[in-house]
Amino acid sequence: MSKIARPALIIILSLLILFPVLYAFSASFFTPQDFTAENAKLLPSSFSLHNYSLALSHRYFGRYVLNSLATATMTAFLRTAISIAAAFAFTHLRFKGQKILLPLLLSTLFIPSDALLYENYITIARLSLIDSYLGIVLPSVFSASAMLITIGAYLSTDKDIYDAARIDGCRDYRYILSILIPLTVPSTAAIFIQAFINSFNSYLWPLLVTTRPKMRTVQVGITMLGFAEEGEYGAQFASIIVITVPFLILLAWGRKSIEKALQGRITA
Amino acid sequence: MKENSLKAFLYLAPALLLALLFCFIPLGKAFIGSFLTISQQGRILGFAGLDNYISLFRDQAFLSSVKHTLLFTVLFLPLNTAITLLAAALLKTKRRFTAAAEYIFITPLAFSLSALALIFKEIFRGRVSIINRIFGLSIAWLDESIPAMIVLVILGIFLDFAFDYLLLLSQFRGTDKSIIEAAEIDGASGLTLFFRIELPAIQNMLSAVIFMALKDAIMISAPVMVLTEGGPFRSTETIMYYYYLEAFRSGNRAAGTTIAVLMVLFSILIMSIISRRRRDV
Q1: Residue A256 within a domain
Q2: Is B264 near chain A, with CB under 8 Å?
Q3: DSSP codes of every residue in B19-57
Q4: Fold adopted by B50-279
Q5: Contact B22 A142 (CB under 8 A)
Q6: Residue B281 pLDDT more than 50?
Q7: Which positions in chain B touch A67 (Cβ < 8 Å)?
Q8: Quick check: A147 and B205 CB within 8 A?
Q9: Where in the sequence is the domain holding A235, given as residue range(s)?
């Protein structure tokens, strides 16, 4: 590729990708008149934090964010713990049924959870978990791909350490907590972050299993804040910016480990 | 060995239990249910044989949802592949300013589906929208069927782009450098080098990405829900959005379970193609 074409293409693509982000940021300062102006605007007519104070003082917005943080943290912790336990069993223990159980669990990768929404909804309703954190979290806790990444990481650890630890009388859970996890920080961090982001950003399932406004997650909530109905579109964008900026920072900080984990998955 | 088996099952119990409860059992229930006649209250009224499948394929609304899904896929798949491949190819070698672009290209990961859909709703809001102003157009984007489908395609690309690009990028960077250097010594350069050497080297990952995007395209529902709600005039109602409407809004269990079974079968087909290709990576 020629010397000019490549940077030019990179810049064009970057602008296209950034446009929705930048537009949302700009729109978060718009006045109601800016939205209805004859000619659509790129920049706000004046600078004011009014929209942000509207968004932050919304009676449910804080609660939505809290619900999302709580469910995303639960999903990330539970999924990481379950993946670690399963991966440990598959890589460090020999047992009957090993050859059947691994393919069985991996076969869930083939089954789209979206097609089972209704059946899962019935299950959650029967367990009376509608409008509860557990109801939002449970169906997505087990992830075969997170387990697969962890198995890949554990396969590359030295088995002699496990044998030595066992001879010294180290229990399995101690070995997992003090040796295995510290040895595999990048992949563990990657599945934790991935689970957190996935859960925080999920929309369809939380929409289905929450009915009370207090239990909604922020992704469902931002479509129901009611700002648009009052003509306060700007506040809607302010709330989008408030929930997105932390993830932009998290991405900048965790980019390297996400890339590494992906590379690990390819070679696994 | 015996003690080991017990211990292993304890470590595996949570994973097995959840897979059973939220994957295998519901799958079995949907499969069996698709051959039964079930009342809205969930009572089994009798064996239906293939009746549910037959009436699904006679349902005009379902058939047009298939048509919309295919249209979406035909538009989405080539565009998404071309753009993600271009992005990964542009950044495959690290240069001075690529770090900034590398970050920019993954920023869509920070946006949730609903946030992005709300932003798109505003960017493409009717004739006075900012997109029309910038490009000097006069299209009522979300109020006409073809433009609404195009907006949906663009939203779909934004949702898939970052992840696909990352997969292709790490594959480009993982390619054995000696092959490329050898080709360079032989005089290959620029586009020849790219299409003859570098692209074939990542073809397995590329086809995996294409099949994953195909699966995403056929299964699309949530973006439809937030962006267009199937409109205008039901022109963006996709198969999975129709499934959602039937199962949750109309209480039409027969259509719900039957679509679920068909989509699971389709997804298994796609995933087995991917995993067969993956094995060669």
Answers
A1: no
A2: yes
A3: HIIIIIHHHHHHHHHTTEEE-TTS-EEEE-TTHHHHHHH
A4: MetI-like fold (1.10.3720)
A5: yes
A6: no
A7: none
A8: no
A9: 47-242+261-267
Q: Which residues of A touch B174 (CB under 8 A)?
A: 263, 266-267
Look at A244 and B111 and tell me if their CB atoms are within 8 Å: yes
Q: How many CB pairs lie under 8 A apart between chains A and B? A: 254
Q: For position A60, which CATH number holds?
A: 1.10.3720.10
Q: What is the distance of C-alpha A74 from the center of its chain?
A: 11
Q: What is the pLDDT of residue B277?
A: 67
Which residue did the predictor score with more confidence, B28 or A6? B28
pTM given for the model: 0.86
Q: What is the pLDDT of residues A114-126, one digit of tens each?
A: 889 999 999 999 9
Residue A142, both tokens: 């087990």
Report the Cα A268 to chain-centroid distance in Å.
22
Domain ranges of chain B: 50-279
* Residue A31 placed within a domain: no
Q: Which residue of B has its CA nearest to A248?
A: B110
Which pairs with CB-CB distance under 8 Å and at least 24 residues apart come from A126-134?
A129/A209, A130/A209, A130/A210, A130/A211, A131/A209, A131/A210, A131/A211, A131/A212, A131/A215, A132/A215, A133/A67, A133/A70, A133/A71, A133/A74
Whether B45 contacts B128, CB under 8 Å:
no
Whether residue B215 has pLDDT greater than 80: yes
The domain total for chain A is: 1
Q: Which of A258, A206, A248 is nearest to B114 (CA)?
A: A206
C-alpha angle A171-A174-A179 in degrees, rounded to nearest 5: 120
Which amino acid, residue A129? L
Of B4-8, B136-140, B196-200, B268-272, the poorest mean pLDDT is in: B136-140
CA distance A181 to chain B (A): 15
For B37-66, what is each residue's pLDDT tens digit? 887 777 778 887 888 898 888 888 899 999
Mean pLDDT score, B99-106: 88
Give the residue, B73 or B277, on which the prediction is more confident.
B73
Q: Does B221 reach chain A within 8 Å, measured CB to CB? A: yes
**Touching check for A113 and chain B: CB below 8 Å?**
yes
> Which pLDDT score, from 0 to 100, does residue B278 have?
61
Instruction: State the DSSP code for B15.
Output: H
A188 domain-assigned: yes
A207 to chain B: closest CA residue: B222
pLDDT of residue B52: 86
Residue located via tokens 């699971």: B264
Q: For B37, list phi and psi in degrees, rounded to 5.
A: -95, 120
